[in-house]
Design brief:
- By secondary structure, this protein is an alpha+beta fold.
- The protein has two domains: 69 residues, Rna Polymerase Sigma Factor, Chain: A; 175 residues, no CATH class.
- 22% of the residues lie in helices and 31% in strands.
- α1 runs antiparallel to α2, α1 crosses α4 and α2 crosses α4.
Length: 281
């Protein structure tokens, strides 16, 4: 068996799983494809050596994370600096780089405190205060969340984060949604309460949370959950996945009652232009 044959076998066995990892990291279908392709080129170049190790897929996963971190350079929005006396440059602005791998999920009304979420390799929340000072050193607080969650935007009370837990289907590498909406404390990462959802099948669908539809409702986007046995001889479909229905709901975070808003057809969650921040994976 030549190098290309063994690499093709590796791809047939692990491409879908690696694509899920790339999508989990980026939260964007196109970026996930770019990330995976970049890493696979590196893997192919090292394949004669990697083919001899016990777990080349572990190397590929680590390479995905490292490549993603090297890509991750995001800036928070600019902010005008107020002054009692009009400056010579009235539109002086500042930028503040965000930590690698973190996604903004909330900004205080005065723009001085930002809340971030990290999804991989574990779920964490971070609050940075005095954002527009000369330095943010010492102003950041990070907390770990026990378990893996897909979080929505920071709640209107600016203290809680509503999330959906991701759980592994036994005997597979598939992730599905947990059964409840989970209220997390922004400052401690602890679970405050769980609310069973009605009117939306949390286990029959895979659910992402987006922004808030009102003081007590958060937007949830759901697609049918599928976790079938992989066919080694079947062509990989992650590069050009099929179009599937996505349904948006407004879910009351207190009662768990979901009301249907609309149904769309798309290939990925992030092909839908809906309110909310990117990266809620």
């Amino acid at each position: 068996m030549d190098r290309n044959d063994s690499f093709r076998e590796f791809m047939a066995a692990h491409q879908q799983s690696l694509m899920r990892t790339a999508y989990l990291l980026t939260g964007d279908a196109h970026l996930a494809e770019d990330l995976l392709q970049t890493v696979l080129v590196k893997v192919l170049g090292r394949w004669p050596r990697l083919a001899q190790v016990a777990s080349p897929q572990a190397y590929a996963r680590k390479a995905l994370v490292n490549q993603y971190i090297s890509w991750r350079r995001r800036l928070v929005r600019t902010a005008e600096l107020p002054s009692a006396d009009p400056p010579e440059r009235p539109h002086l602005r500042m930028v503040r780089p965000l930590p690698n791998g973190w996604n903004p999920i909330g900004l205080s009304p005065d723009g001085d405190t930002i809340t971030l979420a990290e999804y991989a390799p574990r779920t964490r929340l971070r609050t940075i205060s005095h954002l527009w000072g000369t330095s943010t050193a010492g102003n950041a607080k990070t907390v770990d969340v026990a378990g893996h969650y897909l979080v929505g935007g920071l709640g209107p009370d600016e203290e809680t984060v509503v999330a959906v837990q991701s759980v592994t289907v036994p005997g597979t590498d598939c992730l599905r949604s947990g059964e409840d909406l989970v209220h997390l404390d922004r400052t401690t990462g602890k679970v405050l309460r769980r609310v069973p959802v009605r009117g939306l099948s949390m286990t029959g669908d895979f659910v992402h949370l987006r922004s808030w539809a009102g003081p007590q409702e958060i937007i949830a986007v759901a697609r049918p959950f599928v976790c079938g046995n992989r066919d080694d001889d079947a062509p990989a479909s992650d590069v050009d996945p099929p179009f599937v229905p996505f349904t948006a709901y407004a879910v009351n975070v207190r009662t768990g009652k979901a009301r249907k808003l609309a149904t769309y057809t798309a290939q990925h969650f992030f092909h839908l232009v809906l309110p909310g921040f990117p990266g809620t994976l």
